[in-house]
Amino acid sequence: MKLKQWIEENGSARKAAPYSFAFIDEGAKREIRRKTLKAVAIPGYQVPFGSRDMPVARGWGTGGIQLTLSLIGPGDVLKVIDQGADDSVNAVNIRQFVQYTTSARTTVNTKKATLIQTRHRIPEERMGKGQILVLQVPIPEPLREVEPSEKETRRMHAEADYSRIWLLLYEDIVRFKEITIGARYPVIVNNRYIMDPSPIPRWDLPKLHMAEALFLFGAGREKRIYAVPPHTPVRALEFDDHKFQIEDFGDHACRYCGERGAFLDEIIDDASGLRVYFCSDTSYCQKTRGKKDGFGDRA
Amino acid sequence: MAYVAVKGGREAIENAGRFFRYEQVKGASDPLALDQICEQLHLAVDRVMGEGALYAPRLAALALKQSSGDTFEAAFMLRAYRTTQPRLGYSIGQSTENMRVIRRISAAFKEIPGGQILGPTSDYNLRLLDFALAEEASHTHHRFVKELFADVPQVSPLIDTFPKIIEILRKENLIAGCHENFRPEAKIEAEIYDVTRNAITFPVYRSAALQAMAMGETGGLLALAYSNMRGFGVVHPYVGELRMGYLPVNVVNPYTQKPELIGEIKVTEAEIISKLEANEGDPKFQIGYGICLGHNETKAISMGVLDRAIQTGEPGVPSEDPEFVLLHVDGVESMGFCNHFKLPHYVTFQSELDRLRKVQEEA
Hints:
Chain A has 299 residues and is of the alpha/beta class. Chain A has seven helices and twelve strands. Chain A is 27% helix and 17% strand. A seven-stranded mixed sheet of chain A has the order 1-9-8-5-4-2-3. In chain A, strand 8 and strand 9 form a beta hairpin.
């Protein structure tokens, strides 16, 4: 559907929401799209942009929201997840906001969405050609851990001067025999820029490598957009003799669907004090259970 | 056991919002009128306009009402509202010499040309709770106004312009220029680097630095400025001049290309004088400049001190580092990030758990 057609059909009904389509004024949307194109053209490079204030607090996904609002059209199908769950508090809030200002269709089905906004996870099901994943980013600078100054980190990126972050990993191994970075594990994009993949678990990093989908990263408070375009090599930082490892869940399986090949949430059962595990990706979990129950893929 | 993590979020969120509203309305008192907030809590309105970076007293009053008086939240709402409005243009740069002054003082000189104009201030009041205010009625307001003007036959208006105190010092060649660690201004749109349309990058434009502080959070600016003046820094500030009043707003008429007066805004301006320890040449004073929407003297002075502090050549303390100051004084950003830690973090926490357990296994 063309935007013009959409406005004709929905314009009068939308008078209740006293805001323009997708909230942000059109000039700002154009700027965000331009910066997004630049980000796609230079994979892993952080593009500064004039981050607008959203009715959602800074640090709650305003970078992702601005990307979503500048990209979404009337024909899009939106999915919003937080920690893998569609019904998590912040995901619900963001989805309602986007719906309120666009009347876009929504889904929980990863395969049916054209646009997915997420915080802290990449869906378990591989996303395909034409799909976009928008990741919310709290701290876009992977070098912040070793260098607080923005001026200095930009120089380090420009010169590919990454010795200090390699040293950080090395020192970790010397002290603990392990790299102790949990989530937000730094990656090298397109053999050039070191990039913060946002606080996704290490489990999700391989999904960024040579993917079919476009990954866009939005940091609202820090005012940066960056991207991993389809078919781009993305590798976790590792040494030849000390390889990157994803999270290990041992023999645990999802209590709900029985899955072993998904990222699991560990939940403390307060009655018994025992740990139980569930899929973090709730849509995937429902699908897996549906298949086992013979209902097929109807999530 | 129930699978608690999957469903039920939406309903809980909606109910939490309703509960918040209930907390506002459950009492027996009358609803607050925006006029009451604008007139009787005008300093709160001014603060919210300044931190929300939008000169709109009634919207600021509405935001204060809606947020139950939380100035962070109210400024946040104004900022969000700004995003929905197109940027139509920039006003013409305005010298504060043309300010319609309500209050104007200098702490550096006893007598100043034009005189010390105290204006409305509670600076010299004893901060004793006035129990009479607890039970006042509207006729007490009327009586106060009537008595105040009873013995005043006629009010002579203030003169139109007051000379700037620092200009006197400048003529004596006692004022140093801006420090050169600011980036030369880019020639864009209105010849300012608009920080609401561009990310701040470093080295910073001076216009960007001033904007970032002018929309900063009062308490945040104060804390950093206080650290500098108390001991973690070298700025000994003198309030060269503090002004509060109304500034005309002129824009270029797009049809006639002529300047037109479209209104006026209340601002507070502080010019802070501090000695500059020059490596070469004569020692001079350097000016720190503070300005903000509305009447907010603490903010204007704090900003002035920080503007002076970030012009220190080699930053020795946090408040002298432009990055440290400019990236941490925004209340909407810092409040949002602080509160986002209330959001679920169990995926990242799981990753951390995995690492700690692995390290313990190896030990």
